[in-house]
Amino acid sequence: MNSRNFVSTLLFFSTFMLIISGCSFQKPATDPLLDQKAISLATQARTLNQHVISSKGTGWAKFETKTKTEKFKIAWAAVAPDKIRITFLSSGHPVETILTTGEDITFFSHTGAHSKYSYSSKDPDMTDYIKVPVRMSEMILLLLGRFPIRNFDTAVFSPADASLSTIIIKKKWKGEKQFLHFRNDNKLDHLRSMDYEGNLLYEMRVLEYKSYEFGDLPARIELKDINARKLFLDIINFQPNPIIKESVFRLTEAG
Description:
- The chain is α+β, with helices and mostly antiparallel strands.
- The chain is 19% helix and 41% strand.
- It contains 4 helices and 13 strands.
- Strand 7 and strand 8 (166-170) form a beta hairpin.
- The longest helix has 22 residues, at 3-24.
């Protein structure tokens, strides 16, 4: 092949790839006004209680699998975006404390079931501990009264929902999506989080909101994965924006 033919072939191939790329990432034609409404609703849900940067509270956590159900009272102190100390109690007695600092995660058994141990992780996956594939950062958001909604730059109403109650959000150049479903009063009541291959990671349902002076709090939540493993969170007492000392996130052997 001479140089002229090589250049011609290269130009053709480059043009072809640009056309294919343009078609692959072209956004489907949608109503701009509806797109703006979708962006507004999704942003409203993502920024719910964004002013709450720390919290203390108590509540209940119930874990369900096909073979087992466990229920614990919980007490926590959390600071956005990555610090939390949460203790699980049974019959009024502490059972386990989990602590994250944004650099590592620590587990301490109050019953002697295991010795205290830690490992480095900025945002640990909690699947092995709470049986639902959520990350600790997402748990912290829930216990701050927020939603685990990812950053997004596109939001459109789902064409499969004629009621215009479901919005699909995603980040460009990534396959991960989230489906947000809204009630008639525009409050989020259902979220489905998908991986980049389109597989369900988990779905979240808001079973109840509670009203406080600072705003509405998603107080009863169900998380469920594709294997029907469930976590129920029931927030009973909630204190927004308390001062939490750094020492709270240092766990001694005595607990």
